[in-house]
Amino acid sequence: RVAKLLKGQGGKCRECGQWFREGDVVEVDHLIPRSRGGTSGLHNLQLLHGHCHHLKTVREIDRQEERRA
Predict the structure, then answer these.
(1) pTM, entire model
(2) Which residues contact 8 (CB under 8 A, 6 or more apart)?
(3) How far is residue 19 CA from its own chain's centroid?
(4) CA pair distance 27, 49, nearest whole angstrom
(5) How many Å is the Cα radius of gyration of the chain?
(6) For residue 7, what is the DSSP state?
(7) What single DSSP character describes residue 41?
(8) How far is Cα 69 from Cα 53, in angstroms, rounded to an integer?
């Protein structure tokens, strides 16, 4: 799965656009979270650096809180 995503993304993180390098923390992220009906199919997944994944998650939580306010 990771190899297919890596190839499909051209070796780059979709969040920051930087190349993945050996030793980087790489995480699989759901474009549409499973909690909102997303699947674990390749079409709904992307690879992100670990720190990029964290920042994306924080941004999404902030948006959800803004909608509730």
Answers:
(1) 0.88
(2) 42
(3) 14
(4) 6
(5) 13
(6) H
(7) S
(8) 25
Task: State the CB neighbour count (10 A cutoff) for residue 47.
Answer: 24
- What are the φ/ψ torsions at residue 27 (nearest 5 degrees)? -125, 145
| Residues near 67 by beta carbon (within 8 Å), at least 6 away in sequence | none
Q: 32-68: per-residue pLDDT in tens?
A: 989 889 999 999 999 999 999 999 999 988 988 988 8
3-class DSSP state of 12: strand
- What's the sign of the alpha-carbon dihedral 25, 31, 35, 38? negative
Q: Which long-range contacts (CB under 8 A, 24 or more apart) does 60-67 make?
A: 60/33
C-alpha–C-alpha distance, residues 44 and 25, integer Å:
20
